[in-house]
From TrEMBL:
One of its GO terms (molecular function) is acyltransferase activity, transferring groups other than amino-acyl groups. It comes from Winogradskya consettensis. Residues 34-200 form the N-acetyltransferase domain. PROSITE patterns: GNAT (PS51186). SUPFAM superfamilies: Acyl-CoA N-acyltransferases (Nat). This is Acetyltransferase.
């Protein structure tokens, strides 16, 4: 017997109101202490320092990299390609006091149909605990919800990172749940907290 089609027909634009804005455009967003901007080639040394920083590695749950020529090349290739990605937004956080790269904010895993995405950030050793991460989010969120027309942004933060959680809560992210024991650390298993912010939460 021939297999019967059981799926409903898919309409080309089922939810036209849920389309997002243009992720291929990389804006410059200027605040008091930071500028969010596209990446530059001369950011690479500061990026390399941040990615080897033990606190960044620990708090983002990353594997420590063996820092050799191949890793350097991978970094150069990855960041050279950030400004032309059509389906995500990666922006450098520049410290206005120095004009230098101190970190990054990223909107990725964009689900256009449902106008949602995932957020991550990191700030290198020279930029932390100076209010820069909080201001970077304050600049990014209005752009994400207004210009990019997102409805929901989610993130995960490990339970041993109260500073990041504080920054996210200040920005309006709410806790939605706990992913139990998702990360193996030298101190044992760690949970991740799932948080999200909706456009109407702002
Ligand atoms: C998380 C991160 C982006 C925050 O940016 P930042 O510029 O360092 O943070 P800010 O200085 O803007 O704000 C830190 C806030 O946390 C608070 N804080 C600092 N340490 C804290 C702690 N141990 N417990 C609770 N709150 C803490 C500060 O008091 C401040 O809150 P306030 O403005 O109400 O006083 C940055 O520290 C970072 O990249 N860290 C390493 C990588 C990382 O954790 N990435 C996120 C993974 S989810």
């Amino acid at each position: 017997m021939a297999e019967r089609a059981t799926l409903l027909p898919i309409r080309a634009t089922p939810y036209p109101g849920a389309m997002t804005g243009d992720f291929s455009r990389k804006p410059t967003l200027t605040g008091d202490r930071v500028v969010l901007r596209p990446f530059r080639e001369d950011d690479n040394p500061a990026i390399a320092t941040a990615l080897q920083d033990l606190e960044v590695i620990r708090l983002t749950g990353s594997e420590p990299l063996t820092w050799d020529e191949a890793a350097e090349q991978k970094l150069r290739d990855w960041y050279a390609a950030r400004n032309t990605q059509p389906d995500r937004l990666d922006l450098a956080i520049e410290d206005r006091a120095t004009g230098q790269w101190v970190g990054e904010v990223v909107l990725y895993e964009v689900d256009i149909r449902n106008a949602n995405c995932t957020f991550r950030t990191l700030i290198g050793p020279s930029g932390r605990d100076r209010g820069l991460g909080s201001e970077a989010l304050r600049l990014l969120l209005p752009y994400a919800f207004t210009t990019l027309a997102l409805h929901r942004i989610e993130l995960h933060v490990f339970d041993f990172n109260p500073r990041a959680r504080r920054v996210y809560e200040k920005a309006g992210f709410q806790v939605e749940g706990i992913q139990r024991e998702v990360l193996r650390t030298p101190d044992g298993w760690a949970d991740a907290v799932q948080m999200a912010i909706l456009n109407p939460d702002r």
